DNA sequence: AAATATACATAAGAATATTATGTATTTCCA
DNA sequence: TGGAAATACATAATATTCTTATGTATATTT
């Protein structure tokens, strides 16, 4: 489990990318999927997730589709066209950021040993 | 220049690692050095930097040494032993985090092409 | 002399996450 | 069959952290 500090600022990127890959998901599912994929090293909290989903939807990045499982409601989220765009932008920005940080923190694997 | 969102949560790691590599630095110097090293892609703001330096010092990670250049004061920071420890812990945690995120976001370069 | 750079500092506000709590249903299992 | 755990949503209070704005003051460049 990483320090929460470290994960800050990556939540939107994670959500948008997961939805891009998985098609449609509901909130609780996102939490479980991220936990699974990261061996529980990243555990999203619902208190952070739901407000972020709502704000992404409000900003036109996500569409909602309600589904009733018996009486329990489930809200499936899918990317809008804008959301897909944002997802790709955010992921590639993060990829660049990683490279910058690797250089800044001297994490580059040495290429020349001889 | 990366979106500020992306840089969130990395400030302490950056500061501690720079001090580990450079020995001793003052605040303004840290801002310039990070800008230089990252081609201005990461620009720390003084409003974020100084409070963070103060809190790191308060927590025993940094030592301060004041130097007067004429009348102007300059505060040099160095890592304490605890600070060196924290620096190494934070950097390696970040390195692991990068790997987790690369997997989560499907950024792994393909190893097998044939 | 004025503009820019150096060098510190802090306060108000915004953004985002944590923690705690709440509702309600469904599934597991003892 | 009754209680715990899991599912699935939500939000409010608080904490943390960053941005933006502002302030002070000296030194250097033009």
Class per helix and strand makeup of chain A: alpha+beta
Low-confidence sequence ranges of chain A? none
Distance between the termini of chain A: 37 Å
Q: How would you name the CATH homologous superfamily of chain A?
A: Winged helix-like DNA-binding domain superfamily/Winged helix DNA-binding domain
**Based on the structure, what is the oligomeric state of the protein chains?**
homodimer
Order of helix and strand elements from N to C terminus of chain A: HHEHHEEH
Mean pLDDT of chain A: 91
Q: How many β-strand stretches of chain A? A: 3
Care to describe what's here?
The first copy, chain A, is of the alpha+beta class and 114 residues long. Chain A has one domain (4-104): Winged helix-like DNA-binding domain superfamily/Winged helix DNA-binding domain (Arc Repressor Mutant, subunit A). In chain A, 56% of the residues lie in helices and 17% in strands. The first copy, chain A, contains 5 helices and 3 strands; from the N terminus they run H-H-E-H-H-E-E-H. In chain A, strands 1-3-2 form a 3-stranded antiparallel sheet. In chain A, helix 2 crosses helix 5 (81-104). The termini of chain A are far apart. The model of chain A has no long low-confidence stretch (mean pLDDT 91). The A-B interface holds A 2-3, 5-10, 12-14, 17, 21, 34, 37-38, 41-42, 91, 93-98, 100-107 and B 2-3, 5-10, 12-14, 17, 21, 34, 37-38, 41-42, 91, 93-98, 100-107. Chain A binds a DNA duplex (30 and 30 nucleotides) through helix 1, helix 3, helix 4 and strand 3.
């Amino acid at each position: 489990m990483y320090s929460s500090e470290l994960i800050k600022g990556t939540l939107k990127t994670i959500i948008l990318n997961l939805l891009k890959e998985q098609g449609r998901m509901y909130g609780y599912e996102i939490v479980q999927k991220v936990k699974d994929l990261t061996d529980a090293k990243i555990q999203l909290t619902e208190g952070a997730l739901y407000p972020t989903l709502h704000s992404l939807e409000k900003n036109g990045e996500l569409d909602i589709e309600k589904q009733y499982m018996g009486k329990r409601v489930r809200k499936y989220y899918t990317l809008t066209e804008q959301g897909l765009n944002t997802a790709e932008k955010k992921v590639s920005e993060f990829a660049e950021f990683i490279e910058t940080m690797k250089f800044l923190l001297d994490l580059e694997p040495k290429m020349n040993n001889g």
